[in-house]
Design a protein that fits this description.
By secondary structure, the protein is mostly beta strands. It has strands at 5-7, 11-13, 44-48, 53-56, 59-62, 66-70. The protein has two domains: 1-27, no CATH class; 43-72, no CATH class.
Length: 72
Amino acid sequence: MTTGSYTDGETYTAPTLQYSKLVGLDVIFDEYGTANLSFEAGMEYGILIINGEVIHEGETFVQDELMRFETS
């Protein structure tokens, strides 16, 4: 957690100050893996690929690309 709070059965809260509703997670995978994220309705989410690649619903995202998720 770099900023904000995230809940997925357990709640995690970053020790940083924030002035708007924002969540920052730093996720590292050593090898191929699967991640399941819980999204809060009405928020916009993005994943910036720092290194390697991510495959989501048949689309491949590579380094320096931003995956965007919009919730309703």
